[in-house]
Amino acid sequence: MIALTAFAQAPQRPGQQPPPPNAPPPAGAPAGAQPGAPGQPPPAGMPAGAPGQPAGAPGVAAPGAPGQPAGAPGAPGVAAPGSSVTATLAPAPSASAAPAAHLYETKVTGNYFIDKFNQGGPVMWPILIVSIVALTVVIERVFWWSGRWFRRDPKRIEKVFTAIEVGDVAEASRLSRDSRDPVLRMIWNGLNHQHASLQGALQVAAGIEIKRAGRFLVVMDTLVTLAPLLGLLGTVTGLIKAFGALGNEEIAVVAVTGGIAEALIATACGLGIAIFSLIPFNFFTSRVSNLEFELQTAATNLEVMLEAQNKGRREEATIGHTSSPSSSKGSSI
């Protein structure tokens, strides 16, 4: 026994005193090593925490070890005896949570409109196409009706009807020729084809003018109906995405907020496009109705005036025809 104890002790140089039990380790010695046995592992069969084992060994907290507090980094998960603090291990996130959460995240560019477009989901692309088509049609119709407003010539229309009323059809045809006013173009077409069918010529000319005025109204009507439906589709897809991720607690918050944002953004954009298209659509429709009324009124006046002139000519011809035999008969007497 004495031999084993002497063998376990470290050799000392002559004249050197052994360090006291609680003395700090000398400079340059590794942290946690006991004095007198630097870097020496514990003997085989010695239990953990026995004398001779380096203090602060991983996973073991030496009871009452000097300089090492309870729950120190050197002893994770193990609390010193008599301490009320216990260490808990946080559950590590699964490897599939990061890719799944990445699917519900949107890239932030710093631009408000681009970020909202990305948050709106894939339905925003057809909504964008619908908005571009609606804006193009509205701009084209605005320019067309503005040009028609400047092409109107009500004074010349009065001159044409005055000439027809006095029976000067040639002057009326000359005044209405090469005019950009749709009413004058219809009158000119009717005067030039009155020998064949005045009513048919007026109907054809009026139909051409109404078709020009109502151009793209069918497209606008379709867009007014289609835009809210696309917004509703975005609402449904966003809610499907939100409720589909409720079972996964790791991505539930990101998925639900992203899905609700997608639903609301798509709905708002669809309704905005419908409102933007509805107001010009109703305005242009009313303009077409007014033009149709003007053409119908002008055609009716033209038919009445020409019919009155033709009736007067027939009466004059009839009077002349009936007065001619009586005069000849009187002359013979």
Give an account of the 3D structure:
The structure is a single chain. The protein is mainly α and 333 residues long. It has a domain at 120-325. It is built from ten helices and no strands. Helix 7 packs antiparallel against helix 8 (194-213) and helix 8 packs antiparallel against helix 10 (252-332). The longest helix has 81 residues, at 252-332. Residues 1-12, 28-39, 42-104 and 326-333 have low confidence and may be disordered.
Instruction: Tell me, rounded to a whole number, the average pLDDT.
Output: 73
Radius of gyration: 51 Å
Broad shape? rod-shaped
Task: List the helices and strands in order.
Answer: HHHHHHHHHH
How large is the share of residues in beta strands? under 5%
Which stretches are low in confidence, meaning pLDDT under 50 for 5 or more residues running?
A: 1-12, 28-39, 42-104, 326-333
Gap from first CA to last CA? 187 Å
**Major sheet, described briefly?**
none
Protein topology:
Blueprint: H1 2-8, H2 97-103, H3 112-119, H4 124-151, H5 154-165, H6 169-176, H7 182-192, H8 194-213, H9 217-244, H10 252-332
Helix pairs in contact: 4-9, 4-10, 5-6, 6-7, 7-8, 7-10, 8-10, 9-10
Top keywords for this entry?
rod-shaped; mainly alpha; 333 residues; disordered C terminus
